[in-house]
Write a structure and sequence with these properties.
alpha+beta, Deoxyribonuclease I, Chain A, 2 domains, six-stranded mixed β-sheet, 35% helix
Length: 350
Amino acid sequence: MFSFLFRAVVVLATAGILTVLAWPELVGLQNSWVVAHAVSLRGLAVLVAVALLMLLALLLLLVRPLRGTTAILMVLLVIFGVVNAGILVNRGLGTGASASADGAGADGAITVLSWNTLGDAPGAEAIADLALAEDADVVTLPETTEETGVLIAEAMRAAGRPMWVHTVSFDLISKARSTTLLISPDLGDYTVTSAEGSGPPGNTNVLPTVIAEPADGSGPTIIAVHAVAPIQWEMSNWRSDLDWLAGQCSARADGGGVIMAGDFNATLDHFAGRAGAADAQLGDCRDAALSAGSAAAGTWPAWAPTLLGTPIDHVLATADWQVDSMHVISTEDAAGSDHRPIVATLSPAG
């Protein structure tokens, strides 16, 4: 009797744990420590499920008294793996994708490049070369100092592509505490409205976000994002950062709308519950990668295969903007940063 009860508890506990790990939004645990990390690595979860299935298959063959329980556990793991794989496929596995070929090259289109540079690691020349190759109008660079931003702009100006440089730094000790935003003069004059000091209502809590608004009120508000990572002692700040970013996207959605890009340290699962519109993911903003079918391609860490990494870097925009294309760039994996760059082209909707 005890053995039967013990096996039932094991099966039920396993079913509960796998359910939470596969779809934590069901019980509101997507922003909880440990679960938040686990759900961000769905590709790795599928791989682990396959490895555990192989071990259980051996157990099924070798230990006859446990065959019934082992078989049930195997079924649960198969369901877990299929659910995760299905979510990845639904979000899009491609590192390069187009959402709307009709919009490519349309009047008013804006190309946004984002790259967390791990404290200027790739160097100004490499960053400028990539921005020029992608014909970027906006470049968001978390963990990039003003000095490097100026060098990037100078290199781009020499190549015939001038850029304005806007940097917010919480201190000059750690390069991670600087975020730089480059904007083409073709988009008009922009003024930084985010506060230099950390924490809402003026900024994210630990790492700086740059908010730039068009000086004449014509054009999108552009936000270069850097939310803190969900490490154990920063969970409250991380949740607060995501809430604040969602609020910025909703509060500034009027006029030319909002384009935000950068290192959110969060996946679509973590955005759950923060949408302000039915078809939005964060506030009133929609994820460009989800629209383009590449939202499952991992951007961190750069050394891991894209399907085993986590997609925590995003380009988001309000409904004023449609996604023409979006892709994760894997050619810079050896450039020195632990993040992959991403690039999206957006054009005015309608």
